Amino acid sequence: MLKKAKKDERDQFSASSEITEEEKSLLVSASETRDEKTIIGEYITIEGSISGEEHLVIEGSMKGTIDLKRHNFAIGSKGRFEGEIRAQKVSISGEMNGSIKAQDKIRITKEADFVGEIRAKSISVEDGAYFKGSIELEREPNRKSATKEKAPTLASPRPDKEPDSLAPKETKQGN
Domain residue spans in the chain? Predict the structure, then answer.
């Protein structure tokens, strides 16, 4: 089942009970985006690519690519996904095998089963989640230069030991 929901004044989402409150908050951030989301139901299977200008929740299964740029994406607790995801924020509660590139944060809940690669500004993995993969956290541009300035170089001498060329030389005294 494919559902569309609009933002309600009392509740930010009129979503199914399968989506956690934290997943709802991830999907609602990004104030400059439209306040709509699409839910792909538990009994729907998709193979292909999806791109769009609204938030997306998968409770069914999908194989392919998701490209949401400035919008949020979530795999619900019953959802399964295989492929590549590009989104603002991502929340994984179901099964995922693939790669994620998030502009902001990735959240892997305790119900998640994740195998793949992650690239984001920040990540949280709850206790109990299964995670097998690699993580690359993007640095802020100003932090990269500060780290390089503080790092010692390999060619510099250790402070507790003088290099041989600077150490005093022993001299022999003749008899």
Answer: 2-136
